[in-house]
Amino acid sequence: MGGSGGVTGAAGVNLLALRSHNTALVLDLLRTAGTDGISRLELAERTGLTPQAVSKITARLREEGLVAEAGYRASTGGKPRTVLRLVPGAGHALGVHLDRDELHVVLVDLNGTVVAERRAPLDLGSGADAVVAAVAREAEAVVGEAVAGLPDAAVTEVGGGLPDGAVTEVGGGVHDGGVIEVGSGVPCTAVTEVGSGVPDGAVIDVGVGVPDAGVTEFGAGAASAALTDVGAGVSDAATVGSGAEPAGGRLAGVRSLLGLGVALPGPLDHTRGVLHRVTGFPEWDGFPLRDALVRRLGVPVAVDKDTNAAALGLAVAGEGGEGGGGGSFAFLYLGTGLGAGLVIGGAVHRGARTGAGEFGHQVIQLDGPRCECGNRGCLETLCLGAVSRGEVEEAARVLGEGAANLVGLLDIDLVLLGGRTVTAAPEAFVRGVSAVLDARARGAGAVPVRIASGGVAEGAAQLLLAPLFGRGDG
Fold it and tell me: Can you give the CATH number for the domain in which 425 is found?
C-alpha cells in the first residue's frame, strides 16, 4: 500500500520511548492541528513550555521522521514562522476486536485513520491456542497487505519471509544499521552490537545482558523492542516469560509499528492483560492473553474490555468534549452481548477493580429469564431476547431503561450507541432509547442519544496510540 497512509520504516525508532509528558503535549497539538500545522511559537504558547524546550522537542521529532515542515505562516513582525505538522505514516498501531464469533483487525496511522483491515470468523470458545493463532495470522496478514510493494528498507528481517532492507549483516546473526537479531529469531529494534559485547551509544550489550542508557535488558531469552515506560496495560516484549518461548513474530520487523491493542468481552484485568470469567466462556478464566500474544508476535500488546477500548477511541476523537478533554458519556455496545464504556471527565472510568461498565448484567426484572451469568432478569438477556424475537422496538425500550438508570446515577452528558445489533437498526434504537430518556428527564433536559462514530477495533488501536499523545493510560 503506497502513499502517506502506508506502513513505512522511515522513523526506525522506538516511538513509545518518546512518551515523556512534554513530548506528548507537543505531539497532541501537532496531531490536532492536522495538515494546516502549527508553529513552534504557538506550541510554546499553548503548552506553557519555553521556546527553547519546544525547539529541542521538535528537532528530535523531525530527526525521527515524526514531524515535517508544512510551509510558512505570515508573522506580525520579522521573518515568517515555519509551520510543522505530524507525519501520520511515521507510526502505526494494530487494533484487534475479539468478538464471540468474529475477529476484526485494523491497522491505523498516528491520526487513527484506518489504512488496512480484515475480518474473519472466530469461535471464542475454540480455545486459547486457536484464538491466539488466529489473531497472529490476521494481524500479520493486515500488516503484510500494508507493506506490500514497499521497498525493502521499510522493514527489518526477523524471519518468516519478511524482506531484509536497510540492515547489513555483520556476523553471528547481528545486524547493523539500527537493528539486531539476538538469537533464536528474537528481534530487538533500535540497538546494535559493535563487537565483543561493547555497547555503542544508546545501545545494549546483548552478549552479557548489561543494558546501556536505560535500554531494557533482554535476559533469559526474552525479546526486547527497546521500549521503556510503555504505560499501564502495555506489555514490553522483554517482560514476559522466563525464556521458554522467545518472541520473534514477523510484526517486529515493521519499524513504524507501535504494537497491538486487543479488545474483547470482559471481565478482565487490563493492567496485566489477564482474562477473568468471560460470560459464556469460563475456560478463559485466568488466561494471560497479553503475554501469550507478546510471545507469539514479538511486539508490545495491550488488552482491555471491548467497551472500554471503544470509549477510549471515541474520547480521543472528541466525543463528549473537544479532543476528549473533560466530557462525560456512556458508550452502550449491543452486539452478541451488552456492555458499556464510561468516560468521566474525559478519561475512561474502569473502576477500582477494572470492573466498571458491566452494564448488561444489571438486574431489572427480578423474576426474569435466566442469564448466562447466573442471575435472572439481566438487561442483556432481556434485550437480546427481544431482538431474537424480532421485537426491535422492545429491545430499544429495554436498552433505554438501562440507559436511563445510568444517566440518573452518573449525570452524564451523552449516550452513544454501537454494536452490530444497533447498527442493523440504528434509527429504531436511537428513537427508542431517546424516548425513555425523554420520559425520565423530568424537566431537567433530556440527554442526547446518537450512534457512535467509531468501532471497537479502532478503539483497541488507541490503547497503543493514546498514551503517545498524553490521552490517558491506554
Answer: 3.30.420.40
Look at residue 311 in the predicted model and tell me its pLDDT: 94
Distance CA 160, CA 179 (A): 17
Q: Are residues 254 and 389 in the same domain?
A: no
* Amino acid (one-letter) located at 469: F
**CATH at residue 58:** 1.10.10.10
My answer on whether 253 and 332 are in the same domain is: no
Give the pLDDT score at 20. 82
pLDDT, averaged per 10 consecutive residues of the chain (474 residues), comes to 46 49 92 92 93 94 92 74 92 95 96 94 92 95 75 39 33 33 34 34 31 30 33 47 42 81 90 85 91 94 94 89 65 92 90 79 89 88 94 96 92 93 95 94 83 94 93 64
- Please give the model's pTM, rounded to 2 decimal places: 0.75
Instruction: For residue 228, give its domain range.
Output: 92-261
The whole-angstrom separation of Cα 181 and Cα 164 is 12
Residue 146: per-residue pLDDT:
80
pLDDT at 327: 79
- Whether residue 288 is contained in a domain is answered as no
